[in-house]
Amino acid sequence: MAQHGKMSILKAYLETKGLKSTAQRDFIADTFFKTNTHISLEELLSKVKRKNKNIGYATVYRTMKLLGESGLAIARQFGDGQTRYENLPEDGHHDHIICMKCSKIAEFQNQKIEQLQSEAAKKLGFTVVNHKLELYGYCAGCAGGDKA
To answer: Which DSSP string do the residues of 18-63 spell out, in sequence order?
Structure first.
């Protein structure tokens, strides 16, 4: 889904909520869509403020809440107490592995894992509509050091 398509989806969603598209909201969304990492509200605010000093935390927060509600952003929590937002993946579902020392996040896809999860749910009589898999450990840079 191209960035232009995501902006169209956002504008249509705002219309259904009776909200208007604003220059600030569009700029925040556009900045987020250009991000290919898991970004916190503070990090996004910092990026946005480089170009527009008048945008505040509350506007970024409300915009990301709307992006989450519209399905264009996924709020993730990786155990460090901070919410990070991720673009709706263009290449489909992926899972995460997180370093418990430096908080580095890596993404991975594995069809076998996806298949096993589906089979397990089916055996238990469940229909899966959403799921997340998070693995926690130490990245190569942190594995040799103190793990405390």
So the answer is: T----HHHHHHHHHHHT--S-EEHHHHHHHHHHH-TT--HHHHHHH
HSE-up of residue 46 (Cα within 13 Å, Cβ side): 6
Residue with tokens 């908080």: 103
Per-residue pLDDT tens over the stretch 20-60: 889 999 999 999 988 877 889 999 999 999 999 999 999 99
For 87, how many CA atoms within 13 A lie in the half-sphere containing its CB?
22
* Structure token pair of residue 127: 């229909």
Residues 82 and 135 occupy one common structural domain: no
CATH number at residue 123: 3.30.1490.190
